[in-house]
Amino acid sequence: MEPHNSAPVLITGGARRIGLALAKSFLLRDIPVIIAYRSDYPALAELKEQGAICLQGDFSEHAGIYRFANQVIQEAPKLRAVIHNASAWLAESAAIPSEQVMASMLQIHVYTPYLLNQLLEPCLRGQGQAGADIIHLTDYVVEKGSDKHIAYAASKAALDNMTRSFARKLAPEVKVNAIAPALIMFNPSDDDEYRRQALEKSLMKIAPGESEVVNLVDYLMNSRYVTGRTHTVDGGRPLR
Ligand SMILES: NC(=O)C1=CN([C@@H]2O[C@H](COP(=O)(O)OP(=O)(O)OC[C@H]3O[C@@H](n4cnc5c(N)ncnc54)[C@H](OP(=O)(O)O)[C@@H]3O)[C@@H](O)[C@H]2O)C=CC1
Ligand SMILES: Nc1nc2c(c(=O)[nH]1)N=C([C@H](O)[C@@H](O)CO)CN2
Asked: In whole angstroms, what is the distance from residue 22 CA to residue 35 CA?
């Protein structure tokens, strides 16, 4: 994707895993990047060396969302894109009251993108037809539900629906799309048996890694026409 303007791309949760891969992919092409990070990771030093603006932001409370948005607006009057990647994959468990699980999932997957999209709307508008993008990272489970991550799936489904609402509200200046991955990459704590079972769930039987999301983000940001849609990255899982 060639930058058709020099405004930065904002990536939430940009200090590790998929968010970090996205940030690095833009920086490699001299596309300016702002990342939101919560915890301090070794990768932050490298991102800063490569010119990324790294803003600490904890979205667990609404005040943190507003504070972060104000920091972004001070750093960047215009934004090329906002990529809502920050997320927590929280399962229901006896250790946490279910109302806290749902509150936490709604906070990061619904309140955070809902508020940031509205607070940053002036930074996204004013760059011409299809001049900016919003991309929501949702999940394949929006389609199927999840018996172990009920609140997580419900919150991602709300985020999926907001994709269409914000696409209607912000067109034609801003395109709004969702990316709904199934397995992309494992977590270090995933044991061999979990990994074996997870790989069996798709036709392609791989954990493809971050590049699948990076490539789809580039496709969406290069388009002048694709908006209001959810783009699944699932290895043929529904056909298993
Ligand atoms: N990995 C996969 O296989 C799949 C990923 N996805 C989606 O893709 C996206 C990226 O996935 P992945 O890279 O695995 O994500 P991670 O689970 O690694 O989390 C991404 C980041 O979100 C940040 N975050 C979580 N809660 C908050 C909060 N309250 N405030 C600020 N930041 C927060 C985390 O910060 P901290 O480290 O400080 O907690 C973390 O750095 C997510 O939206 C995910 O749901 C969907 C399906 C499959
Ligand atoms: N925020 C996160 N969301 C999800 C993750 C993750 O690590 N962080 N992982 C998955 C799984 O890979 C799942 O798609 C397959 O078991 C889902 N969401």
From this structure: 10
Please, are residues 133 and 80 in contact by the beta-carbon 8 Å criterion?
A: yes
Reading phi first (left if > 0) and then psi (alpha if -120 to 50, else beta), residue 178 is in: beta
Question: How far apart (Å, rounded) are the C-alpha atoms in residues 156 and 225?
Answer: 24
What's the whole-model pTM score? Answer: 0.98
- pLDDT on residue 53: 98
pLDDT at 3: 47
CATH 1.10.1780.10 fits 9-232, yes or no: no
ipTM for the predicted complex comes to 0.99
| Tokens at 9, concatenated | 């791309």
Q: With CA atoms as reference, report the closest residue to 234 among 192, 188, 199.
A: 199
Q: How far apart are CA 43 and CA 32, in angstroms?
A: 17
Residue 237 contacts residue 204 (beta carbons within 8 Å) = no
Report domain extents, the chain: 9-232
Does ligand 2 have an atom closer than 6 angstroms to the CB of 182?
yes
Question: Ligand 1 center to residue 86 CA distance, Å?
Answer: 5
Residue 181 Cα: closest atom of ligand 2? 14
